[in-house]
Amino acid sequence: MQKYISVLRNCALFDGIADENILKMLTCMSGQILSVPKGGFVLSEGNRAEPVGILLSGTVHIITEDYWGMRTILAAVLPGELFGESYACAKSERIAVSVEAASAAEVLLLDYKKLITVCSGACVFHSRAIENMLYVIAQKNVILTEKMMHITRRTTREKVLSYLSAQAKRTGADEFAIPFNRQELADFLAVDRSALSAELSRLKKEGLLEYRKNRFKLTGGAAGLQ
Questions:
Q1: What is the pLDDT at residue 118?
Q2: Does CATH place domain 2-144 in 2.60.120.10?
Q3: According to the model, what pLDDT value does residue 46 have?
Q4: Which one of 27, 61, 86, 155 is most buried, by most CB atoms within 10 A?
């Protein structure tokens, strides 16, 4: 676990907890590292909602698929971020989403029961981790609400501008990278990929933005929202 301490140190779950205590907690919570190839699944819909995951390297997507195989990306998880905590803490019998590796990834799986139950020693850092978990869940709710603001816009143009505007505000810069390729962004915004590509081309021609692969730069003003 020591090799991943720099990633774990930046994980919100361990905010305010010293490195040596992080390592003690991982042992307490029966931490196990799982290597997943690109396209592999960390968790699949219908699995028991027991483990909480922390991404150590790579990228994973939280996805849903309907009966006909139409998929929607609910979120992209980056190194140091958690997933599965809402289902685990809600004591759901089964998860309603899948966690798929968008690239080769390494994941740390933790026993949520040991995570949310103060150990026999009633250690201060374990109590801090429980407080941090509440913060993480609250933040995830905020992010989900933000996504709903994007996908409930009426047109592809409005969805794209809403999403990119939110990314600019989050990073505090007009130039930034997003964690999606074109197909993944289309899945995230629930739009057709060809419609997304066409809209991005129009926005570029209108001088509202520039882009190359997953890097964007916003160059226009409020007129783009009309």
A1: 65
A2: yes
A3: 87
A4: 61
- Residue 128's pLDDT is what? 85
Q: Counting runs of H as helices and runs of E as strands, what totals does the chain give?
A: 8, 11
pTM over 0.90: no
Strands (E) located in 11-131: 32-36, 41-43, 51-57, 60-65, 71-77, 82-83, 98-101, 105-111
Q: Edge to edge, what strands does the sheet with 175-177 contain?
A: 175-177, 215-218, 209-212
Provide the pLDDT for residue 117.
Answer: 72
Q: Which residues of the chain have pLDDT under 50?
A: 222-226
Question: What's the length of the chain?
Answer: 226
Q: Which CATH number fits domain 153-225: 1.10.10.10, 3.90.70.10, 3.40.250.10, 3.40.640.10?
A: 1.10.10.10
Question: What is the C-alpha end-to-end distance of the chain, expressed in Å?
Answer: 51
